[in-house]
Amino acid sequence: MSKRLQTIVLEAILLVIGITTVFPFIWMVLSAFKPNSEIRALDQSLLPQEWTLDNFLSLQDKFDFIRFFANSLGIALIVTALTIYTSCLCGYVLAKYRFRGRNAIFGFILGTMMIPWAVTIIPRYTMFEAWGLRDNYLALIIPAAMSGFGIFMLRQSMSDIPDAVLEAARIDGASEIYIFHRIVLPMSRNPISALAIFQFLWAWEDYLWPYLMMDSEEKQVLAVGLTTFNGRYGTDYGGLFAATTISVIPVLVVYLIFQKRFIAGAASAAVKG
């Protein structure tokens, strides 16, 4: 098989996979403009036969959509910012400082990534319950403030920063804090962008932990709030599709902001040994 034919076959396979992945999303967005009677009909069509904005206009009447959206957005932004900073700080120390036990600490961090998240739910819940943090936003922020994946990614990337650059800054009288914030962080924009996309997505779509920890409805996040469309005798699919369509917007915005550096950042962390 020639190289050109291999390329065509590979691109065809990727095209099929891409269409298969995107088609449900397109169907959901278009269904948000359909009335529920058309969504439930046996005779389905991709484009709405009767376009309507009622599903979007009535969202706030069905549940406190704006409040849930604001809660999710605020928590996701705070968690993303904290994760990026702590990952950069820990990654820099593990990459550029020489001290006894450095490799053991890094190995321990990698080990935490191998523990299934579900295993830690009960002890984590018991811990936060004992601390009196149930129904408190801190219960959602503290567990995600540090990320083993983020530390791994930033450590791998910062290992490529030349030591000569840092030594030159120290000779010029720069403090370690100045070097970290003014030299290391700007040189790590690619992996920071990649981590920002990953972490924001994880924080935005988190469902189980907020569901367990938040009791007050006004403090609940959007991922949990969307379940209110599932009634006892039926589901408001139109409202559900409309709310889900709007909930995707922040993720798309974050990706569009960081997309230019996303691939480079992920690749730089993957190829470093």
Automatic annotation (TrEMBL):
Give one Pfam family.
Answer: BPD_transp_1
Question: Which Gene Ontology cellular component terms are annotated?
Answer: plasma membrane
Keyword Transmembrane among UniProt keywords = yes
Q: What is its main location?
A: membrane
Biological processes annotated in GO: transmembrane transport
**In which family does this protein belong, per the annotation?**
Belongs to the binding-protein-dependent transport system permease family.
Protein name in the entry: ABC transporter, permease protein
Q: Which organism is it from?
A: Actinomyces urogenitalis DSM 15434
